[in-house]
Design a protein that fits this description.
CATH class of the largest domain: Alpha Beta
CATH topology of the largest domain: D-Maltodextrin-Binding Protein, domain 2
Largest sheet: 7 strands, mixed
Radius of gyration: 56 Å
CATH architecture of the largest domain: 3-Layer(aba) Sandwich
Number of strands: 14
Structural class: alpha/beta
Order of helices and strands: HEHEHEEEHEEEEHEHHEEEHEH
Strand content: 15-25%
Helix content: 25-40%
Shape: elongated
Mean pLDDT: 82
Number of domains: 2
Length: 336
Amino acid sequence: MPKSTDKCFELFFNLPVMMGRVLAVSLLMILAACRPYVSDTVPSQQTDKPISLTATAHPTISPTKLVRSSPTVASSPTPQPVTLVVPARWSGITSEAIDQLSKDNKLWVWQLKISEDPADELAQGKAGVSLVSGDEGIPAGQRPLALVVPFTSDWETISLVEAKQIQMMGSPFVAVMDWADTPATHRALRVDGLHPSDPDYPLLQPWSLVAAPGYEAAATELVPALEARLEDDPLVHLAAVGDVMLDRALGEAIRTGDLTYPFAEITSLLMLADFTVGNMESALGDQGAPVNKGYTFRAPSEAAQTLSMAGFDLLSLANNHALDYGPQALQQGMDL
């Protein structure tokens, strides 16, 4: 077959392929013309993933449990040591006061120091707080101020005007001191008829707490605990008499029923005392027999009631007449 014929057959068989390519190119050009313009600078918002129209369930939000935090406790301040200086007379009551204060208030650590001159200790910087007589500091209480004389003196009473003069000017015959400091060899004068132990006694000595700089708060806190103890310092009144002999005429009066006769004039004084003592200079009762001696005494049994009514609390039997009627009478008297 001639070559021209071969080319015709080749063209014939390739024509569909060529036509297909032309159609494909044409179709692509048409599609390109129909596509909307998108700037190269703006990224396409299209995605290959299909858009789902199914409603999306929102996640369940569990309520958050609130945990309450514990409150922050402020640390307690460090207790500050403070030295309290007092006269020896007040060591007991001030010790009680600071013990009570230490239980109620932990701000101070109290140290008690005894001195006859607390004001001087404070001036030398050896004290934080001092208890001194006078009213220059924080008032802490008042105490009876006694004008005392020896027991041998016959001086009994003094007026308030005279007492204040002695307090200011002094006296060679009278010592002025706190009533509780009265020595055993002296006694207090009555001022306008009142004894230092009487509630309305007019001569009082103020006491106060003086604080060094920085210790004012400590002194202020101590005052309530100390004040009551200064003013309520207990006093015990003792009454003591000499020999008590309720035989003979006094015994006869008691036997007839006049039990109050022996002490009628002094019972009121004896009853004022907290404790009254005497020396029972006789046997007591109706038992026993007199011993062989010059003088023997035995009070009737009713005398025990007489002694009680007069205010006696204790009677001594350590004398030379306790056994005037023998041991049996002595025992009876002790039992009565």
